[in-house]
Amino acid sequence: MSDDLLFAAVANPVRRRLLELLRGGAMTAGALAARFDLSRPAVSEHLRILRQAELVREEVRGRERHYHLTAEPLAAVSDWLHPFERYWRDRLRTLADVLEEDPE
């Protein structure tokens, strides 16, 4: 799976919300779709993209499809963001130092 697919998948707010919902445990496609003001086919399309990015896995039980979060690929997002986190931490530390300086 490419990083481009992963980043494209998490770029969409609906897909990010689907991932957040699945953090609490597996959910059926119908239960997920009920949480959105979108058609069920539209939610299914978002789930397909998340499956392609390997962020969710699908389990078929009878007539229902249960979706499970697969968070491991998100480590690549975290790795990419880490240098920016350090950048902002350093910038905020500099700002705090300036604000704490004695004005006299």
Automatic annotation (TrEMBL):
Keywords: DNA-binding, Transcription, Transcription regulation
Superkingdom per UniProt: Bacteria
Gene Ontology MF terms: DNA binding; DNA-binding transcription factor activity
Signal peptide boundaries: none
Keyword Transcription: yes
Pfam families xrefs: HTH_20
Residue stretches in coiled coil: none
InterPro entries reported for this sequence: ArsR-like_HTH, HTH_ArsR_DNA-bd_dom, HTH_MetalResp_TranReg, WH-like_DNA-bd_sf, WH_DNA-bd_sf
The keyword Transcription regulation is annotated on this UniProt entry: yes
Domain HTH arsR-type: 1-89
NCBIfam families: HTH_metalloreg
Name assigned to this protein: Transcriptional regulator
Native source species: Actinophytocola xanthii
